[in-house]
Amino acid sequence: MVGRRTARSIAIAALALLTLLATGCQGHFPADAQGTLDRATGGVLRVGISENAPFTEVAEDGTVSGSEVELIQEYAASIDAEIEWTPAGENTLAAMMKAGDLDVVIGGLASDAPWTSKISLTRPYTTTTGPDGSPVKIVMGVTPGENALQVDLERFLAEEVGDL
Question: What global pTM score does this model have?
Fold first, then answer.
């Protein structure tokens, strides 16, 4: 007869083994459901940009600038990717993200942005002051389920702002 302690130990070991097998079968952890990081690396990173100076600005000729533009350009360079820019309002970009037409959305998004059903928000990488004087945490958006891209971008942002 197996004792309670032994049965519990066997159950924990079996659970650990199943977890290892499940993550091992997926190839990479964290994984991208659509393989976005793999596709973008050495390829094209599709970035939606909503104008919100000083983070992002879009000139009439389509030229983009701003602190987040510089950050995402540096990130794209770190994965040897070209950027395909799509300027639009946040609502349009959120819909495009949900449809899988974008990889990243920038535009001085606040961490409490209402797009969380369509966009997965990164960890805040900086803070600014809101109109009422309170601090606002700034994030970027990635396609939900593209965890490898999100972790890679968050790691890059943390290194850039000195969190790592």
Answer: 0.80
